[in-house]
Amino acid sequence: MSPNNCDGVVWVLDNGGGSIKSCMVNRGGEGTPDKPPDILHTPNSMVRAPKSSDVLVGRDVLSLRDVSGLTFRRPVDRGCVTSWDLQQEIWDHVFHQRMPNFQAPLSTRDAFLVVTEPPGNPLHCRAAMDALVFEEFQFQGYVAVIPQKLVAIHEHREIAVVLDVGFSFANAVPLFPPTKVNGELRTPLNCTKRLNLGGKALTNFLKETISFQTWNLMDDYLLVNAIKERLCYTALDFRKELADVKRNPDSIRKMYVLPDGTALPPSDPLGRIRDDELAENHESSEQLLPLCNERLLVPELLFEPGDIGIMQCGVAELLVQAVSAAPKQFHSRLWANVIVVGGSTLFPRFIERLNRELRPLVPAEYDVNIYQSTNPIEAAARGGYNLALSDNFREMVVTKREYDEHGTCIGGGNFLSLLESPDEFFPPNGSEQASRINYYASFEKLEQGSMFLNSHVGARHCHDRGLIVQNLEDGGETGPKVRSL
Questions:
Q1: Total-model pTM
Q2: Contacts of 160 (CB under 8 A, 6+ apart)
Q3: pLDDT in tens, 149-183
Q4: Which strands, in side-by-side order, build the sheet including 338-341?
Q5: At residue 261, what are phi and psi to the nearest 5 degrees?
Q6: Percentage of residues of the chain with pLDDT beyond 90
Q7: Beta carbons of 82 and 76 less than 8 angstroms apart
Q8: For residue 40, what are the contacts with CB-CB under 8 A and spacing of at least 6?
């Protein structure tokens, strides 16, 4: 197989903080965009059971029958990979497991890779991923792209704003063609806004609330996460519904049967919701967890993160800030194409509440249309599948030969995919390869003292990372300034 034609097997990894969504596609084979892929979910963690020296990695975690007291090690913290050794071990587990529609695991040396990275991924994380992909797994080539771009590909929308409420954080990314505004290049990356609150924080909040009021479940993350997903819902009018619950707590009260190893069937190690019709005949040995206003308090944090001391705006205001940062000529189409993805958007009535919150904040001349992907958790992986089969894949891939010749400075797949190769940066009178190198080299003309000037790796990231002018903590402007060239 020649790396120039990029035909062959392509791995697709949506490297989330909680789980990795993966699939394989054979370019030039039977895979077509019309045929949905089989997505495999792998926990992105290493788990050790109490009183045991055995360590479980990846999908081996799903075989546990007792989920109490587990100790987790995760390679991703706050959206960025912080332990590449652990991430390599989990990826190795993913690449060596049997995939649907493939008879046996295939060597990564003969394959290509599409992998996601968060918007504003730090410089050292990209350099470490380049080394892992090319030096450890020996891929023929790969593309790193933000998952929100893949979501837009999956939904067949070129201009849209994607609200992604994931495991570690939530962000709003407006997708539009890079445009100059008052002489400054405005790209989707420097319009991205982030909320440091995700599904993990919601589960921890519920875990602390339950442990303070009833059962001590501080060491039972998987159990509390299942309770959150099965019982919590979004209040359309939070204050009104909370007052109604105070007057009549039984209106929303639910009983959850905790696993005890004997009362539950083997197929349900995470407990179950007790059937109200059988409540009078329940077994006395069942351990019951009552849930009342906790059911609506947890999702409310996405709209009011200040309730737990996170001094940031909610997801509705986050969308408004992201769209407002985009060029004004795209506002109408952005508001008409709001795509919502992420596991934490699956709470019942979340879309209705988001629409209620957005409408007063958006100018009346704009129509607000909110779409939720058919499978919000797998949307990015399915978009990566479509990307791997597209004709543009060949132009976006950074091959191992390029990496060996030029080092990390050639690996700009994320930014190149968003930039869509405008003539300003890739002159038509030169070869694509030469234009790429000249493009990255040109951004060495930065102000002295920039932390990005220490290596050729910095030259690659100066433009796209330097133009991410938001601070992930408070939304302020940070980072080096790029001179006009």
A1: 0.81
A2: 152, 174, 175, 333, 334, 337, 338, 339
A3: 999 999 999 999 999 999 999 999 999 999 998 88
A4: 193-195, 170-175, 160-165, 338-341, 370-372
A5: 90, -10
A6: 58
A7: yes
A8: 21, 22, 23, 59, 94, 97, 99, 100
